Amino acid sequence: MKSLLADKKILFGISGSIAVYKAAEWVRELAKSEAEVTVVMTDGATRFVSSLTFAALSGKRVYTGMFEPDAGENVTHISLARECDLFLIAPATAQTIAKLANGFADNLLSSLALANRAKMLVFPAMNTNMYCHAATQANLARLKEYGYTIIEPDEGKLACGDEGVGRLVEWEVAREAILSAFAPQDLLEQTVLITAGPTCESFDPARHLSNRSSGKMGFALARSAKRRGAKVILISGPTSLESPSGVEIVNVTSAVQMHDAVMENYINADIVVMSAAVSDYRPEKIMEQKIKKGSDSISLEIVSNPDILKELGKRKENSNRPLLVGFAAESSDHLEEGKRKLKEKNLDLIVINDILGTDTGFGTDTNQVNLIDRDYQLEKLPLLPKEECASMIWDKIVRLLQ
Question: Which is the catalytic residue, given 84, 132, 160, 200?
Fold first, then answer.
């Protein structure tokens, strides 16, 4: 199974900053993702980390000068620019940003920027006073006018000892920016509400009823929607997952809390995707004290939780919005159960998966789902990593929007 970045030709520019060590990790991660990475370094960058390191990490030649002795008839800054799908610069120093903003072409990196016609990502990294200086801010504003995408640096302790904005972002943020650059922007101006993870229903201060959902599928859907330009609100039960970059997250615990959060937020949503594994039942009473071990058995009175998806379906009976997507995690009669829920809950699409499958159940990194739309058209997706599965689900949702 190929990665989302497989075979993408990425030109990776590196300028002279202590943050070059982070760029080495990024190159390694891109190579692991099967991207073809060509590194271009300024003279300053080679003073922090050698070009040999990046050649070993990328598996490809590293370029450092305008006039390579073995270039032959190729003009390096033209040929490299022609061959890339994406050009990123990380770290981008104040000096390099100034050169890009003013059209300088006095080294290979700045010349490539002028010759390049692919999407351009710039990741600034520098001392906080340098970053906040009016000249740097004016240069960044000009780059935005040129169509470059600027990924704002993080705040924190800097290598020089100062505290403030200027740190090169972490790899997860960079990865999302890179994937966004390749993703179709077909969810622009769409607000998407997604639920994810399990819910937990307490019956005493120490114990609860729950399920085995990890939240991985819902979080993958949130990341994928954000990459495609959507404003994303993610309502999540308890998980151990990192919050997706750029996504508004609402943390809840119980089914009732999830119900309230969904009803508060769905009114502004164009698309609602209910991928959470919401508990069908909860204990009628929560004990104030921990139940002590004693008798061989105990009994709990349980009552139904609100059916969030069904309530949303009823609310949209006289309206075409929001587009409503449900999930059916089934152990038998998968398609029949999916069709029943699609009709009963007034859905536009239902995503059905087998919770007993070794590669498709709770907590796995892969999934194989069947999609049934409002016209009862069935689409069977192959076994895929959850990120790629999420992307294909969004492909279907976009077609339904059209």
Answer: 160
- Alpha helices (runs of H) in 183-299, residue ranges in sequence order: 216-227, 255-265
Tell me the per-residue pLDDT of 253-310, one tens digit each, with 9 for 90 and over: 999 999 999 999 999 999 999 999 999 888 888 878 888 877 777 788 888 999 999 9
Instruction: Name the pTM for this structure.
Output: 0.90
Residue 222 tokens, joined = 């949130």
Tell me: do 144 and 261 sit in the same domain. Answer: no
- What are the pLDDT digits (tens) for 320-354? 789 999 999 877 788 898 999 999 999 999 999 88
- Those residues whose C-beta lies under 8 Å from the C-beta of residue 292, and which sit 6 or more positions away, are none
At 174, the amino acid letter reads A
Are residues 141 and 219 both part of a single domain?
A: no
My answer on whether 165 and 196 are in the same domain is no
200 is catalytic: no
Domain containing residue 321: 191-282+302-401
The span from the CA of 215 to the CA of 240, in Å, is 9
Taking CB atoms within 8 Å and a gap of at least 24, the contacts of 374-380 are 374/342, 374/347, 374/348, 374/349, 374/400, 376/339, 376/342, 378/335
From the number of C-beta atoms within 10 Å of its C-beta (0-12, 13-18, 19+), residue 149 rates as: middle
359 and 314 both lie in a single domain: yes
Q: Is the dihedral of CA 331, 335, 337, 341 positive or negative?
A: positive
Do 230 and 96 lie in one domain? The reply is no
Number of domains composing the chain = 2
- Chain-centroid distance, C-alpha 174: 10
Q: Is residue 140 part of a domain?
A: yes
